[in-house]
Amino acid sequence: KGPRRRCPRRTPDEEFVLSEPELRRRAQQQLDLTTRSMWAEHSPSVTSYGPVAWATLRLEDLPSSIQSAFVRVARHEAEEWLRQERQRLSQFRAQAERFKKQSDKVAAWYDQKGKREAEERAREEQREREQREQEAEKERQQQRRNRLLQQRFAQWSAEKEQRDREKAEAAERAAQEEEERRRKREQEHRARQKARLQEWHREKEEQEARLLQ
Prior knowledge:
Blueprint: H1 14-17, H2 20-42, E1 46-47, E2 50-51, H3 64-100, H4 107-212
Antiparallel strand pairs: 1-2
Helix pairs in contact: 2-3
């Protein structure tokens, strides 16, 4: 019985790796890393209220020029990943060929080693599943926090808009009332002036009439 063969590595699916959805997925990951880095540099990690949650940005919400830049970087990284994967695949195949030529005298050792590796892989897969579940839960919590923040901001904006509108309406009413008072004062002033002028003319006519008697 010969050495246990390793599972062959799959040839990278270049069409899938360089597809638009996959490139945008990579671009989103790069955007997330950039956002986390900028947030860590310019925001305190802990406040009196606890850790500060970093804000999530979506690639599709950014201007098209910025989206294109992230996608170009993602394409470059994907092409580099494909190159490395092909190189690793070539190395793996060469190594697999050498394993095929090994002597049967180490078969039992390989069987035992394969068993240990399978057990370790099972444990590693279990750890990875648990880690993915934890990360998924963290993501759900982050999404809930983001939705709560968006709701609070929307409520604050609506209340501020209402306050501003009421303030503007009150100012407009006050201005209208002041203008009405000003017009009324002017009318009363002109009425008084007119009355005084009429009184002056009446008195003047009476004086002239007495002089003529």
